[in-house]
Here is the input.
Amino acid sequence: MSDESVVRSATAVTRYRGWPLFALIALVGAFLITRWTAEQPSYTDAFYYFNAGERLAHGQGLTDAYLWNYVVLPPELPAPSHLFWMPMPSLMVALGLTLFGDSYAAAQIPFALMYAGVVLVGFWLGGHIGRTSRHAWVAGLLTLFSGYFTRFWGATSTFAPYGVFGALCLLCLGMGLTKSGRSMLRPYVWFAFGGVFAALGHLSRADGLLLLAVGWAAILWEIKNLAQGRREAEKQREEKSVSQRYKGTEVQGEDLKDFFLANPAFWRFKSVIVLTAAYLLVMSVWFVRNLNAVGTPLPVSGASAVWLTEYNDLFNYPPNVSMGRFFENGIGLLISSRWSAFTTNLATFVGVEGLIVMTPLMLIGLWRRRREAFLRPFWLYALGLHLAMTLAFPFPGSRGGLFHSAAALVPFWAALGVVGLDDVVDWIARRRRRWKANTAKLVFSVALLGLAAALSWMVSGAGRTFAATPRLYRELVQRLPADGRVMINDPSQMYYFTKLGGVSLPNAAPDVIREIAARYDIDYLLLEFEMRNGQRVAPGIPNGLLPILDNPPDFLSPVPLDTPNARLYAIES
Here is the structure.
């Protein structure tokens, strides 16, 4: 079947076989799941993005009232926001708060809509790759009930924005490569949209820049066909009775025009230009903002994560993340950190992306379709993402970076899982003639969907968050002045509940506390810990600061707290 007939087949599936009903199911399901799973943020990223979006909606611009890491040291607080993470989730929060009211539920509305968008992409991909209505419905519902992803789609974080923009980018790139339609301009329209979505994906996550690189690689994949293009150009000139012929390396007059028009390499380079221009057009606004804020188009803080020796290096004060420090003890850390990331990311791939049971099915589905041009951007991105999060960014990758960025793969894996299931059933049916392949495909598709829904229910139910202010933050609001600033483990979470600014705990000795306090006008230090089996456990306190709990230095004065397992100190100037 030709690429164009495949497009027509998929178009028929999505146009006539229940897509309005599925769109309604996707929209209602996305909103219900979003509100059921999260009534407030539950982790640092979601707190951070909400806080920045709220400040933007309230007229304070893209600024932070606190410092959550020490990779970039602004001269004062408040400071320009998003110097480590990208702004799209905060922009979505600001949009929701501005249009629908000042509440977390209002902020979630754009994320719920984007969640529904990811589900619809899964529906379309199922129809496009599988070419039946069953494939479309099952792939769409597998995207809606996506296991460990389900409870995060509606969070004020990168999952839904990057999921929809990343998936649409890969989809548009694939459509551009199939050269569908009669108009020669149509592939360039797809690549232009691909560039737009690559930029929106990059604005959602820093590693979204990989989408642009994948676009280049996918387009230039067949550059080796240059010789074939020359032969086609010569044949075309003979048919037109062109007197001048291409000889050696010299091309003149109409020959030059014919050569370029028939040469695949020329069209691919032109496609790269269109893709890149569309990307730069969207990103230019963010580049200008950063030039005004920090003097560079993109902050360099994210790239420095390559040289982390541990995740806590983000909180080193003063910052000392560098290549020299990374290699000061040889290559042992390089090997051990990458191996640890490999094992963790492999578990993420099998258990989170593949829902365990779907992993072999989606790999079979991809392998049997590996030569299809439409899927080339997808598998290049999937391979590049896992390599980058294992070899280049092992610490951020294994601590959630891969999980976040794999959101763009979810609808593709869902579609490939369904067609892979069909491939397995067909393989068995050829060897067991009594098998009714169509019945088996329907039964196993429903079973796969049931397993995904059950896993989604269990994981999402166990991780639900309810709207409630922790006792510690209620007490901080009562005891501290409104303009007080606190050094704490998670300043993003504290700001969400109290609107108190501050900085993160440094991964350093207690002596640096006074230096940081003087630099950013920090008034208090707060240390939190737990008691387990009679032992004190403090995972949120860097090792260098643990001695404070037993022997606080002279410049720290204890402040009484009624909240157990927390110590508050006033920092003397």
